[in-house]
């Protein structure tokens, strides 16, 4: 069996239709979870779209740019972005209703301290979008900072710096909430 970390092996795995099926089996659960946490009502459709796009784009995969897993999460991120753009175009001026593809709804289910859920959602929403995405990819999707960097298209060192900044902002904001300090 070929080493999946070997660049040439990864390249063959993505390009070969039979090996691609094994790739789907290996990563399907994690990628479906990515959609379920961000767009629960559309997760199945988005997951299917991901595999269609990944299969169509498989010849463009470059093992020099990162792991297959990071590439797939990048494709997933693009599918999700397209979904949100389409929804906004279909419903101009209408806010998303709670629970309607609300990526924060799943956060409530996962928080141990339910009383902090609104504060943590607010803190996450205040983060710059790339920092928020990096934090969620590392925390929820269990990607390494290097893999998350490849997903959002920034250098790994920059991702580590932004992750550090995001974690500090979240920690400091939670500490302020716990002590009742409004600043």
Describe this structure in words.
It comes from Streptomyces silvensis. GO terms for molecular function: DNA binding; sigma factor activity. Belongs to the sigma-70 factor family. ECF subfamily. The protein has nine helices and no strands. The longest helix has 24 residues, at 156-179. The chain is globular. It has two domains: 1-98, Orthogonal Bundle (Rna Polymerase Sigma Factor, Chain: A); 104-183, Winged helix-like DNA-binding domain superfamily/Winged helix DNA-binding domain (Arc Repressor Mutant, subunit A, Orthogonal Bundle). The N and C termini lie far apart (56 Å). α2 packs across α4, α4 crosses α8 and α7 (129-139) packs across α8. By secondary structure, the chain is mainly alpha-helical. The protein is 69% helix and 0% strand.
Defining key terms:
183 residues; mainly alpha; Rna Polymerase Sigma Factor, Chain: A; 69% helix; disordered N terminus
């Amino acid at each position: 069996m070929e080493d999946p970390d070997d660049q040439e092996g990864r390249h063959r795995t993505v390009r070969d239709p039979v090996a691609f099926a094994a790739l789907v089996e290996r990563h399907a659960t994690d990628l479906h979870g990515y959609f379920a946490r961000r767009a629960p009502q559309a997760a199945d459709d988005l997951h299917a779209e991901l595999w269609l796009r990944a299969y169509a784009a498989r010849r463009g995969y470059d093992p020099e740019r990162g792991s297959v897993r990071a590439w797939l999460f990048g494709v997933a991120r693009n599918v999700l972005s397209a979904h949100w753009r389409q929804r906004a175009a279909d419903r101009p001026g209408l806010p998303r209703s709670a629970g309607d593809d609300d990526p924060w709804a799943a956060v409530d289910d996962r928080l141990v301290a339910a009383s902090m859920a609104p504060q943590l959602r607010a803190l996450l929403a205040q983060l710059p979008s790339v920092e928020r995405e990096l934090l969620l990819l590392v925390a929820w999707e269990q990607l390494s900072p290097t893999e998350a960097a490849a997903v959002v298209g920034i250098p790994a060192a920059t991702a580590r710096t932004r992750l550090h900044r995001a974690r500090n902002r979240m920690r400091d904001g939670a500490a302020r909430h716990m002590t009742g300090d409004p600043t």
